[in-house]
Amino acid sequence: MGQVVLKGINKFYESVHAVKDVNLQIRDKEFVVFVGPSGCGKTTTLRMIAGLEAISSGDISIDGNVINALAPMDRDIAMVFQNYALYPHMSVYDNMAFGLKMRKFERPEIEKRVREAADILGIGELLKRKPRQLSGGQRQRVALGRAIVRHPRVFLFDEPLSNLDAKLRVQMRVELKKLHLRLGTTAIYVTHDQVEAMTLGDRVVVMKEGVVQQVGEPLELYNQPANKFVAGFIGSPAMNFAAVTVTEADGSLIAENSGLRIKLPDEIAQRLRGHIGREVILGVRPEDLTVVGSADLDHPCFDAVIEVVEQLGSEILLDMKVGESIMVASVEPTARVRVADKLRVAMRRSRLHVFDAQTEAAI
Amino acid sequence: MIEGAIWRKWVFFYVPMALFLLFLLFPFYWMVITSVRPDGELYRPWNSINYNPFWTWKPTWDHVRYLFEETLFASWLWNTTFIALASTAISLVCGVFAGYALSRLNFPFAGSLGSAIFITYLVPQTLLFIPLAEIIRNYRLGDTPWSLILTYPTFLIPFCTWLMMGYFKAVPRELEECARIDGASRWQAMLYIVIPVAIPGILSAGIFAFTLSWNEFIYALVFLSSPAQKTVSVGVTSELIRGDVFYWGPLMAGALLGSIPVAIAYSFFVEHYVAGLTGSVKG
Question: In this structure, what are the phi and psi dihedrals at residue A63, rounded to the nearest 5 degrees?
């Protein structure tokens, strides 16, 4: 079992309120990812769960038992650190066996578990080496192995992939996912990389300035972001935002600013009835913008001028000037576009997002 | 180095290097040559015809023999070794624990306590020996090795503490945190993880402490009085300079033999010692 419940967790560092009233229920066998920019409190939250950081107020419980006052060793958790934290003076075998030795396991049992973990991770050949003789990816595996052998109730990961190079990171990401499917241990994972969050997490917790912004499955965050921050943080390239004023004309709602004037589709217009005459923020993802030949009656359109063309091979990113602001569109790699081209761009009507200009919450 | 300009290499590198080496090594050379030179050559006036201060054709062991047969040099050596090892051991144990506590445990006034310890290191020994002499006398420790074993730590502990503080700070905190999650108590994490990782630092602190107490002069001069209790540095200078007569041969032989253990300590640990100074802990 490994059910983790955070109830009203707060953390103060002298005058800084680093983590603000976090409430979260993590189910057994779930893979939960905390994601957010640096300084958002995600690592602090993880360290509080690990017992490396005192909780200022609130309760953390594992399987129903409050663990606030327990020492890290008594929480039955395992943690993988960003810099791996391998014991440099011990061999790979001893690194992995250390936790079991500390817990007074019998020698044959230690041997068995270490072999088992080494086989899962494919580091059976390296058991006699010292950490400094390993590559980054191998060190990462040893760090994982050290966590696995303990058979803990919960795995904690603190940005475990960010010291690896890009290619290896993708590879290890897949392996982590496989490992979780195989072991089924509850995992809490901290990262600043939204791609990792989206690909690994059963659920993702987006944090900013110590406050949980949204908790949800990856696609839920992508399709229905709770606020402008989540909308901008999840997805790459980031969502385009435009501050627009809502006006009414001929019974339908119009959103406009200096370079943009679009008729809002009905489903959004309904939600914006209360905002007539006010400013809202319109959001649309680059992949939901398409270049159209002439006026497209179905979808809201606007005119744009290409400023930069970024060829990525699988797609083309267009940085376009729309009125005063810049928008990015992701288009087919076959599109024939050049800098300074004037384009008509359509927004997919079902994929428009609107946010309150003051609270930034989704409307 | 610029290619094709060999003369530059000579002018800016080899020649200055050679001069520097000459400057540094000449005292040692002088020590060696004096200690094997017969008395007749040593006290020859500078304007005599066969005056030749830099070389001798008749090397002799007389001075070394004199040192061991006519003086208590062997006991001085033993005293110095015992005192240096004991005070180094005391200081290392205290310094390692204090350094760990000051760098890792967050207790109130840790910072100011660290600075206070450093300030005690700055109090000159030439002042500190006066109150210390009083204490030594009150505890009736005068003229025993304990007078030095217990007073050397007054400057060795702050020194070791500071060196170890810096070293412990360079050991990634995660190592210890990981150990504590793995099931080690704070004490076990320190014993099994942090201290083994800090061995190079502990070795450098030990070598420095050993050298400092081996070479110490003032306390040894003040607290020890009978010839049999003296250390090498005091014994050689007080017993081989009688009035205004310098027994140059034995004096230099004593200095030479006295510096050999330190040289051995350095060269034996030099690998660890350098690693300790450059801090080679990486994840």
Answer: 50, 40
- From A24's Cα to the closest Cα of chain B, the distance in A is 22
The encoded tokens of residue A170 equal 């993708």
For residues B272 and B283, give the distance between their C-alpha atoms in angstroms, rounded to a whole number: 18
Q: Is residue A295 very low, low, confident or very high in pLDDT (cuts 50, 70, 90)?
A: low
Which of A185, A139, A188 has its CA nearest to residue A159?
A188
Rounded alpha-carbon distances, angstroms, from residue B170 to A124, B100, B177, B281: 31, 11, 15, 7
pLDDT bin (cut points 50, 70, 90) of residue B283 is: very low
Q: Indicate the average pLDDT of chain B.
A: 87
Q: Does B283 touch chain A (CB under 8 A)?
A: yes
User: What is the spatial distance between Cα B146 and Cα B175, in angstroms, rounded to a whole number?
Assistant: 39
How far lies A353's CA from each of A21, A328, A345, B198, in Å?
28, 16, 17, 56
Question: What is the end-to-end Cα distance of chain A in Å, rounded?
Answer: 39
Residues of chain B found within 8 Å of residue A131, distances taken between Cβ atoms? 283
Parallel, antiparallel, or unpaired for β A65-66 and A57-62?
antiparallel
Contact A351, A313 (CB under 8 A): no
* Residue showing tokens 């935002």: A241
> In B, which residues are within 8 Å of A73 by CB distance?
180-185
Q: Which residues of chain A does B178 touch, with a Cβ-Cβ cutoff of 8 Å?
A: 79, 81, 85, 87, 146
Count of residues in chain A: 363
Answer yes or no: are the C-beta atoms of B129 and B219 closer than 8 Å: yes
| CB atoms B177 and A85 under 8 Å | yes
Residue range B53-88, pLDDT digits in tens: 788 888 888 889 998 988 899 999 999 999 999 999
Q: Model pTM?
A: 0.81
Cα–Cα distance measured from residue B148 to residue A66, given in angstroms and rounded to the nearest whole number: 55
Q: Rounded to a whole number, what is the largest CA-CA distance in chain B?
A: 80
Among B174, B188, B197, the residue with its CB nearest the CB of A81 is: B174
**Closest by CA position to A173, among listed A195, A145, A154, A147:** A195
pLDDT tens, residue by residue, A300-348: 888 889 999 999 989 999 999 988 888 999 988 888 888 888 888 888 8
Contact residues, chain B, for A86 at CB < 8 Å: 283
Residue B280 contacts A where some CB pair is shorter than 8 Å = no
Task: Say what the ipTM of the complex is.
Answer: 0.83
